[in-house]
Amino acid sequence: MLELFLAELKRSWIEFTRYPVDAIAGIFITISVFYGLFLSARYIAGPNLQFGDRLDAIVVGYVLWTLVVFIVANITAVLQVEIQTGTLEQVILTPFGISRVFLARAIASLTINIIVITGILLLILLLTGRQLYFPPALILPLLTVLLGAYGLAFIMASLALLFKRIQQLLGLTQFALLFLLAVPSETWSGTLWIVRLLLPMTMGAGILRDLMARNLSLNFVEISLAFLNGLGYLVLGLIVFRRAEVEAKRRGILGGY
């Protein structure tokens, strides 16, 4: 598995360096969209606007949304490219299996894009003049968000495997992800708190906002529940993807487009 990861990491790095204009354009667009929203809000509210820690929380949610959108779209996009180029059968026939190959490929791409996302975060903080906290404990809620993101990514990839073209659905999914990651679910109570337990990534995102924007301490009960949520969605995604692979083989549409 390590050999597979290193091979995919090399492949991701070659693709990233071979098309630098695309990477730079993506970074510029991501930062420009947020900064445009920031300037618009400040203009509407007037010179007496006081964001407090709310803007910090919004920054955390926006950067998380950017990361998760990449994860969910990346696996699906790579799968569709394999289908269009007719190389999906070669991936399936490898000793590792299609699930391991795409998981290793996604983690390898994430390794590179974590650096890009960190750069985007630092530039946004520089432009807005805000300051976030970076305690070592933030690794734990970030991991729960990544687990849930990969679970959703494999569910979307399952749809791509069966229906081939799902670009419009991916676009709608981005708005749903913005709700999950940007809404301050950590303030919910009562029935909404139970809903928060069931929604993907919301608990991990809320814990990250508490740690990075509000400088609160880590709640071990919440982080444990967030881990269970993330693992549950990852297992669900892998099971659905495996079922979709079997169904695609049964229908004979694995390599069709």
Automatic annotation (TrEMBL):
Q: Does the keyword Membrane apply?
A: yes
Keywords of this entry: Membrane, Transmembrane, Transmembrane helix
**In terms of domain of life, where is this protein from?**
Bacteria
Matching entries from InterPro entries are given as:
Nod_factor_ABC_transporter (IPR051784)
Keyword Transmembrane helix listed: yes
Mind telling me which residue stretches traverse the membrane in this protein? 21-45, 57-81, 102-127, 139-163, 175-199, 219-241
Do you know which PANTHER family this protein is assigned to?
Answer: ABC-TYPE MULTIDRUG TRANSPORT SYSTEM, PERMEASE COMPONENT (PTHR43229:SF6), NODULATION PROTEIN J (PTHR43229)
Question: Any idea what this protein is called?
Answer: ABC transporter
Q: What is the lineage of its organism?
A: Bacteria, Bacillati, Cyanobacteriota, Cyanophyceae, Oscillatoriophycideae
